[in-house]
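In this section we walk through a basic example: taking a raw amino acid sequence and producing a predicted 3D structure, encoded as discrete structure tokens. The instruction is simple. Fold the sequence below.
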Amino acid sequence: MLEELFKKAVQLGERIASQDVARFRELLERAKELWTEYSPRHDSRNRVVMGVDSGWNVRLYEGFYVYALRAAAVDEHQEVHEPVAEFNMIGGEQTGLTPENYVKVQGEMAEHYVADRIADEADLVLVDGSLIARLQSAHRLLRELHLLKEYLSLARSLRERRNVVFVAKYSHRRSLIRGELGDIYYIARSTRTPGYVLGQTDERFGIPITTAYVRLAKHANPLAIEIPSGDVDEEDVRHIMDVLSLRSVMGYPYALYLAHRTVRVTDALMDQLCVAAGLISFSGAREVLSLEGGRDNLGRGEA
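The resulting token sequence is shown next.
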């Protein structure tokens, strides 16, 4: 099996190396043409910027599983706003989803709820991830389940909130440059200066979403941002960059880093919660896997 995996890895490397060089250069040139250089005007005013994220962990037992979930908005003074905390048990096939997918969906719903609750209190609300990607995933997972209606209701609560910005370090969208890989790949390799590309507005499930790509500092990785509004122009993108330029570390918003660190649900914390719930005597998946020296990989500290 290992031999087959390495064989496929070599084949992938050969496929990547054999890309059409002329076509690749054409795509890089296209990305460069779209790029607008912009050096952010450092906004030193007392802006309120909050990062929103969720973290979760799952533990499997015979016939049921338990999960822990945390979500919150965190400001740059590390104060926590609108915290959400859940520790619950799901038995059998109640949800129609795998444990990981169920808790992932719950985490995203909690993030939408928190972002809506604090939007009027902040100049910028930064949510970790892509709204478009999570809507597509939720529709695929939930389209035959009643949970989709609740999910979309919470997502739509963010509609036309121009100060809510979804921020993703990785993006697979190809709507601008239309290459084999995501737009952000070509942008990262064709530009090095601070700046942006303002993309198009798409409507997904009744939510207008405007996409842009920004780089906050020289040589930093570009970020994909999505704003749940159709009324977004270049001045709005510049304003976001101005506000974040002094509030980022290596080109990534500091508030999101704090939010991620705050809501993590580590394996150690999950162990303590399971002991507090009296589950120490129940047989779990980790015990079975430990016979072979392995650990389950369902536990995670982020969403």
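Looking at the output, two observations stand out. The two ends are 31 Å apart (CA to CA). The chain is about 40% helix and 25% strand. In the next section we compare this with other chains.
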